[in-house]
Amino acid sequence: MPQLTVPFAGQSHRSGPLSFGHANIVRSISVDEDPTRLNLAMVFDAPADGGLDRIADQLRTLVERHEALRTTYRLGPPATQVVAAEGELAVAVIEAADDPLAVAERTARRLRSQVFDLEHDLPVRVAVVTAGGAPRHLVWVVTHAAMDVAACEVLHTEWAALCADRPLPAPAALEPVDVVELERSATIRRLGESALRYWESQLRRVPQAMFTPSARTTPAKTDWLHAGLNIRSTTVPARLESIAERTGASPSAVVLAALAVLVGHRTGHSTVVTTSLSDNRVVRKLRGFFGSLAQDALLPVDLSDVAGFDDAVRKVRSAGLPAYRHAWFDPTALWQQVINEVSGERGISFARDLVFNDMSTLATTAGSPDQSALSRLPSVWIPGHQPAPDEDPGIGGSVSWLPKEDIPCRFFVCLYRLDEEFELTLWVDPQILPKDEAEEFGRALLRLLRAAGDADLPLGELKSLTTLEPVARGEGWYVSDRSQVELDAVRELLADVLGEVPHLVTAVPDEELGHRIVCHLAGPDSPATVHERTLAALPGRVTAIAPHHYVVHDDAPAGPAAAEADAWAALPVRAQADGRDGGVRA
């Protein structure tokens, strides 16, 4: 395959620790069984005039302009970033035998499927697709460690300016290495400490998971290849503006409220917990920042006392203010000091299974209000006009399926457009919403927004807008510590931990918890040892929690009575221990 070599030079060699955004993504890449999920791919139009020499000059300009594109990572510990002063960018040149755009998209998917060597290779792969020797498309694949979605918008804007011979705007004041110094300032340090306290306070009171597929039907290894349900409407934007005017919320918050209401209806949870992605460009110096800053905003909304949709919107707006304000933090401290500790104290496994990503500000053609696209991130972003499909007048929009993507989340929402058209895609695990029910969820979302656009909608009328039924949880399901718990899943968890050691797990009514999970056992291990092993085996089991209480007996019931709670209760007790609040205690 022909190759174009783009040298860059004359820049500064720099190094330093990772910023919070970098560390957050690098951590995710290092723990993900498939790191390519965190690669971003784009296909842009390329100017045919000037040939490959012009393409090389434009690429050189971008690589020399942005340190993130010249950075490698020493994963440590401690992890560091190293910015190269000079080097070469290898660019594949591919002559298209058929449709150049189809060739470019196939190339983008192929390059995206390859793991980046963060320690040794530049964080970007580039290819130029030509037709008759003339450039037609630029394929750009980058590791998420170097760029987030906001940086993708900056990249496209700058590439379009270079192609049109327009001057580039002034670069952002800070590069990724500089952000580290910013985060060491007293102001940002206090912001990070406040974020940890916020996350701790919220994690102590939220359900461990929104979606709880039965452990009896969930395979041991989850298939994260999910089809995407694309939802579009030309009538919804006006309805969103009407609701936003009544409630004082942004149209994006209105959409999030509609999603929360429907998720609550489906799951039966009165508190709906969304992890909403934040680009964290709140400081003036970070406007137009090129790199990775995005982190999670934890946004729980209590809908238990909400009568109408407008109140739900206002609750989302109110919850969003502190959530986004506390979305800038040290990710290592968050996981080790907050998420892991609080989860251990509660005996839960926090799932992060409802994720919202608002990409509606992502431009597709610089200076143009048209934000349609031929293809969208999270896989391959191809700017270009995509006519809206015919709309169903019964729902005020359309729903259609997109190809499967590898997305390790049970319910991932990408909001793409809020201008002349509303466009949103749901990537849904079929274990929690089978295909027909996912389609009904999409139709219900459009109906809800249309009805609420006319007037405040009493939530009691939600059932009239959808055939989507709440999850049916029968015998063996209990509410415990705000989570939906399947007793069989807890018993399976303890069986994996204890093996042949006799034991029995029961659910006992409790005023504070709803139900208290109790484990009776007879064996040589102490409750503290059993509890520690149970917590270690818990991650990923979203319908199980660790026992709240352990009762140790010298002997186990004999014969068939071994499965009876009364038989265990009749035995002498050697020791009892509480598994909550920071570890087992007698």
Which spans of ≥5 residues are poorly predicted at pLDDT below 50?
Answer: none
Number of strands: 23
Q: Summarize the amount of helix as a percent range.
A: 25-40%
Oligomer: single chain
Biggest sheet layout: 7 strands, mixed
Taken from the alpha-carbon principal axes, the silhouette is: globular
Mean pLDDT: 93
Gap from first CA to last CA: 69 Å
- In DSSP terms, counting alpha (H) and pi (I) runs of 4 or more, how many helices? 14
Radius of gyration: 26 Å
Q: What would you call the structural class?
A: alpha+beta
Strand fraction equals: 25-35%
Strand order, sheet with most strands: 1-6-7-8-3-14-13
Describe the fold and architecture.
By secondary structure, the chain is α+β, with helices and mostly antiparallel strands. The chain contains 14 helices and 23 strands. The strands form 5 sheets. It has a 7-stranded mixed sheet, with helices on both faces. The model has no long low-confidence stretch (mean pLDDT 93).
